[in-house]
Amino acid sequence: MESNFDELHQPILTHDHPPPPELNSSLEEMLSNTQLPLLKRLLSATWIELNLLFPLATPAILVYLINNSMSTVTRAFAGHLGNLQLAAANLGNSGIQLFASGLMLGMGSAVETLCGQAYGANKYEMLGIYMQRATIVLTITAIPLTIVYIFCKPILLLIGESEPLASSAATYVYGLIPQIFAYAVNFPIQKFLQAQSIVRPSTYISVATLVLHVLLSWVAVFKLGLGLIGSSLVLSFCWWVIVVAQFVYIVKSRKCERTWNGFSVEAFYKLWDFVKLSSASAVMLCLEIWYFQVLVLITGLLDNPELALDSVAVCMTIAGLLLQIGVGFNAAASVRVSNELGSGNPKAAAFSVVIVNMVSFIIAVIEAIVVLALRHVISYVFTEGETVANAVSDLCPYLAVTLILNGIQPVLSGVAVGCGWQAIVAYINVGCYYGVGVPVGCVLGFKFNLGVKGIWSGMIGGTVLQTLILLWITFRTDWIKEVNTAKKRLDKWEN
Fold it and tell me: In this structure, what are the phi and psi dihedrals at residue 478, rounded to the nearest 5 degrees?
């Protein structure tokens, strides 16, 4: 990385619990201490960074896994109602809910940049204002999304779904309308807490809510006979439980007393500027979330697609589950980089990027090795069919490559969020994913008759290209310049 840092900066701030004594000196000071031998300096800095990284990443991974599991549990209960209900819940989740959650999470990541850098710069009072601004913008965004939910049946019919399936999916989706507004509040709250490295309370709340969710789903579906609408309403209710519990924590906890000063009229200032920043974030994240959904849609266009769709569905389920680890490191990378930039610590920001990428990559390689070792039996977790198992086994090498990429790409996206590069990454995603990956995949899959392997190969190629570009941008980054950019950004957004 192109960096020349001679100044010493203030130490980074503490997290949920005070760090061990050896962490009391800042990472920037350790990296700048030329009196120590280089190897000892790097080893000590790595120890400091790991002790800051894992308390952030581990709870974040658990939160994303648990929140993802709530949707899975809801669909599992729907499956007990019948095959049509299961298909309807899956369609409502993949076709409608995923669109809304991706958009809202993407827009919410704008506050991640601002809160993380403001916290590092000791501008604590601005975190609460940024959170409120994000909530206002996301709540307004939820209104047109609600209209999409209301008219989802004709939309599904328009894209060729059958009348019974579209009707059942619409019933399921109607119960998810309150969830949209829960997203609008939850994602800013989540980023507000993560920026301060307060992550454990969200984990405890999510675990408790998951237990409640299973219990209420059982009551709604089996005892009260509320069917699809009951299962989705329970999911919406539980998301609101998470929102309320987290907000109560913010108001009552002493850890947030510097960053939450109550509701403020300043939250309504500069909303249009926030909309523009949020839009870039939304485009960046949505293009990533939707990318491999396109793989499933294109696979459905193959001749006799049933077996291909079944095997791809199993692989995408595994990839989606393990992706939550990458997403957890994405959040940790964003917090670490934004905090250090806000604190004026360019060396520490650059070093954090290196360490979090190395750790996430090593874990991703281990995941890929395990998947390849279990390639002949892994599908039996989802289905008993031997034909599907053989098809999944054939696709596992592609899944393994995807898992390795998922260990790098989300982390680089987290670095981009921490630095405020959302607009740049959005353009890169459009070009690499949809200008290269999808067309090449279609050519390989249909023109060269490689089927789902060809489609997946093309899309892997798009991800590789995007990852290489992000690596190059990150490697060439002038971190002193990024510190100055963060300072200007905070000065612009303050009040």
Answer: -90, 100
The two structure tokens encoding residue 171? 């019933």
Burial class (CB in 10 A: 0-12, 13-18, 19+), 406: buried
The answer, yes or no, to whether residue 454 has pLDDT greater than 90, is yes
DSSP symbol at 14:
P
**Inter-residue contact 368 to 401 (CB < 8 Å):** yes
Beta strands in 12-163 (DSSP E): none
Q: Which two tokens stand for residue 108?
A: 């919410």
Tell me, what DSSP letter sits at residue 11? P
Q: Residue 60's closest CA among 249, 324, 422?
A: 324
Q: Name 312's bridge partners.
A: none
Give the C-alpha separation, 35 to 306, whole Å.
65
Rounded to two decimals, what is the model's pTM?
0.84
Taking alpha carbons only, the member of 66, 36, 22, 51 closest to residue 324 is: 66
**Distance between CA 477 and CA 337 in Å, rounded?**
13
What is the DSSP code (8-state) at residue 303? Answer: S
Which tokens hold the place of 356? 């979090």
Spatial CA neighbour of 142 closest among 171, 193, 108, 170? 108
Averaged pLDDT for residues 295-306: 74
* Structural contact between residues 146 and 177, judged by C-beta atoms closer than 8 angstroms: yes
When mean pLDDT is compared across 114-128, 232-246, 300-314, the lowest value belongs to 300-314
Q: How many CB atoms lie under 10 A from the CB of residue 45?
A: 24
DSSP label of 266: G
The answer to whether residue 2 scores a pLDDT higher than 50 is no
- Residue indicated by tokens 């697609």: 305
